[in-house]
Task: inverse folding
């Protein structure tokens, strides 16, 4: 079904049931518990249907201008008929469901977000209605203590001394990376916070060392905090896109000789492009010797902490000064729920330095000791921890570990399979649930291999049966699968390969017919 | 009922109904649509009860260590009995509801968050299950076009030329302030992003001018982005805590003479402490003359845009280079939903400067034109706009305007009432729904007035009938009410005054008996 057909189905499927119109002028009605129940009932019915649909499907994109017009028509009721509130709500939910990436389908192998644990979604409803912004104990008693509990639960797998480390929840991996790098900056250059650029000796040029393959939020952080993107030192990576240990010392020496003061080294566990794991243990030793803050971006991979099978990939993480874990990636809760860990609790107060009478109590007491506003960027913070904790409490760590183990396992199986296919090339042995590869049939010009992958990805998207992503590795595009859905089997992947071959050979045929370059987007 | 009794009730009230145990080892069961429906049913029943409870109540705080232990007991089932998953979920929801600020009660007059529009809460459930992180059109088609639609809807009240302005959604007012100030920094000092501190001439000291009474996130931003908190220029305020227009030019002249280059002026519409509105129209003229970026922190007050009665308070906001609006404050949706507006669309791309192949497509197309990742800080961003839009679509602007008008009206009534009470002093004529005042009975030593207010606030909190806040104005504590609940009437406020008098006189009696200082927290 094309994207446009799909749109029409969304709008047609609104029912003709008895309606429950509210008096729109009455606040009392809009806020009534009865209306809440009715609307919630509609949402649950639609979502249950959605969760029940395990058909294999991807996602074709709709022309945004057409989608925009569809929504405007729905808003202005241009169809000439009066649409009831309930029907509008149903139409909106249909449209929302059908125009989104189908994360619950076995056709979904494309990105780093998961079909969430349904209980976590349910709990978002609770959090929204009780509305407890959680940077202060007073406004969010339960989330504040639950942050401590989850910190201790997860520290079982890290092993820091009790009470000496810190875990801060914040709104996304980018914000957590920024926060940690700020803490590093303020720890190493204490005058930076108040004096800014003016406080540094002319000769001191602070710099950050990062993997060539780090997430864009890391270099963005350098631009934001006044270090400057030019003062990013790129650490070379090997073929697996891990930081090359034997080149690190040399690069750092060279940076120092050129007048740079490297105060922070950012490693990754689970890079975005290939899921590569940097050698934390050894990098920690180098950082310690040089008095550099080691920050680990584990947005994707730090969740392996909970898996007995895979924890060893994080060897040395307890030596990092800070690390990030996105629970909305590999712990399968809704975006966003990011955990930022500090080895040394005191240093978690370095990131921000502040006073404000209406928020920060002048006299600390038993309550304010649980406030997190001095450690997290947000003033109003959604009680992010609650979704994760309620799932942890009811299902235990085994749910998370089982799903992680399963996803890593299927990725390995798929990799083994690809090794036996002569017309495919894999770019790496997968370290987690991300795998990059290329389709390289006979007859394809080597110079066109990258554009060819991109065309295949776009055709797959258009055909709407599978959803995969693409990535540029060393300047050449590759196909990328991320296994986040535990319903995906090797059989589904084989169906994907069949699709890729069919599309690829078709494209090749067209090229050979037209004898022109295949380069389009 | 004391906080501890309350705790016990939460835990006792779990039922003994038939249970639906899942096989915890099976991913399939945890992700099943049937379990989703059952859990959602439990949540809705609890929340409907909660919304139906309109009794007058505040919130006593529980000792965090006791709450922590309670939660741990619940987790470890120390009571010696096996608690079913359903009963655990019920106990958690009870605990969550009962330990939170009772935003739906008429006793709630304390903070800037509201009992949310229930439909917005319901829609958070939908957003969580469909899980569409929305910085890229591909991953969130509907939220991406809806951002454009809401931008145009709100621009009706601003009046910028179509297509020439920008609205960006982001995770909270602090992040929006940071983003706007970064855009200003990079616009005025284009080399700052890549060169950082090293790129500035020794003589240039960038500075930011802010109201004496601005939100802490603004000076925090100066610390974060490398300007330095010392380079914050404080603009003096009048008795109403608005920036004093007749002092601005002098302060800016003096700053320049001392070698500072003020590149950004941050005004507020609706300060946190007193809800003061700075004179935007005149500040815009001063900023224009001096080529300073004018940013307006309208986290609390910019929502008055939708009110015909109150829009005039924002006169000149269309002349600001950027402004912030927290829809999770005065548009009554769940935290967080922040809107950041730019007068000039091009400048919205100044805040961040970036390349990353796996996220930013090298060849722009009709889809990537709708991506927001280059304008917003987040890579993974919750589809924040959806809650606001669905309420706007179903209820129209009138719901928001009616509630705002009602809240401003009750605040005025309360103020008029206080003017007639000889033992109270008001600190200002309220400009929005925030009012600060002090209880000043005969016999109170003027030197003790601040501590006295604090003790009253704490006793009111402890008694659990009302929830109000406190604020320091010119170094002396005052009581502060924020009317976010449209169920609050003048009658409720009079009951609060009765409480304040009862508690105050009781405290005064104790002091006179003990003849000691009343200063405790």
Result:
């Amino acid at each position: 079904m094309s994207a446009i057909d799909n749109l029409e189905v969304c709008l047609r499927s609104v029912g003709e049931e008895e309606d429950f119109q509210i008096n729109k002028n009455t606040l009392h009605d809009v806020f009534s518990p009865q209306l809440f129940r009715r609307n919630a009932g509609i949402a649950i019915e639609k979502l249950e249907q959605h969760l029940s649909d395990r058909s294999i499907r991807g996602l074709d994109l709709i022309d945004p201008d057409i989608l925009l017009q569809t929504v405007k028509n729905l808003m202005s009721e241009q169809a000439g008929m009066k649409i009831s509130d309930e029907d509008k709500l149903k139409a909106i939910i249909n449209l929302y469901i059908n125009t989104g990436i189908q994360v619950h389908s076995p056709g979904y192998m494309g990105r780093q977000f998961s079909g969430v644990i349904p209980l976590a979604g349910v709990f978002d409803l609770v959090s929204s209605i009780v509305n407890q912004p959680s940077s202060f104990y007073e406004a969010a008693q339960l989330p504040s203590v639950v942050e401590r509990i989850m910190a201790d639960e997860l520290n079982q797998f890290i092993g820091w001394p009790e009470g000496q480390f810190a875990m801060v929840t914040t709104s996304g991996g980018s914000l957590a990376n920024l926060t940690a790098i700020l803490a590093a900056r303020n720890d190493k250059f204490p005058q930076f916070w108040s004096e800014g650029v003016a406080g540094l000796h002319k000769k001191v040029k602070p710099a950050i060392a990062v993997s060539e393959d780090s997430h864009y939020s890391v270099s963005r952080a350098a631009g934001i905090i006044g270090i400057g993107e030019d003062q990013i030192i790129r650490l070379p990576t090997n073929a697996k896109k891990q930081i090359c240990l034997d080149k690190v010392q040399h690069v750092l020496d060279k940076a120092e000789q050129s007048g740079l003061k490297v105060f922070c080294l950012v490693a990754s566990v689970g890079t975005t492009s290939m899921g590569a794991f940097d050698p934390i243990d050894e990098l920690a030793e180098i950082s310690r010797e040089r008095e550099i803050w080691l920050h680990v971006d584990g947005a994707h991979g730090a969740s392996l902490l909970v898996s007995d099978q895979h924890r060893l990939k994080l060897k040395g993480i307890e030596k990092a000064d800070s690390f990030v874990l996105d629970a909305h990636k590999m712990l399968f809760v809704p975006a966003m729920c990011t955990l930022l860990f500090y080895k040394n609790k005191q240093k978690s107060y370095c990131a921000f330095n502040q006073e404000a009478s209406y928020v920060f109590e002048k006299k600390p007491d038993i309550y304010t000791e649980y406030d997190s506003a001095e450690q997290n960027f947000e003033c109003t913070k959604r009680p992010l921890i609650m979704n994760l904790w309620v799932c942890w409490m009811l299902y235990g760590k085994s749910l998370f570990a089982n799903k992680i183990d399963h996803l890593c396992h299927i990725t390995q199986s798929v990799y083994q399979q690809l090794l036996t296919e002569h017309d495919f090339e894999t770019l790496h042995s997968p370290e987690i649930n991300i795998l990059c590869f290329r389709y390289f049939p006979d007859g394809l010009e080597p110079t066109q291999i990258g554009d060819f992958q991109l065309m295949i990805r776009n055709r797959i998207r258009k055909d709407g049966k599978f959803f995969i992503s693409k990535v540029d590795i060393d300047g050449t595009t590759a196909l990328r699968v991320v296994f986040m859905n535990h319903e995906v089997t090797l059989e589904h992947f084989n169906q994907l390969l069949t699709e890729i071959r069919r599309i690829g050979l078709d494209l090749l045929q067209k090229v050979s017919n037209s004898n022109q370059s295949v380069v389009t987007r």
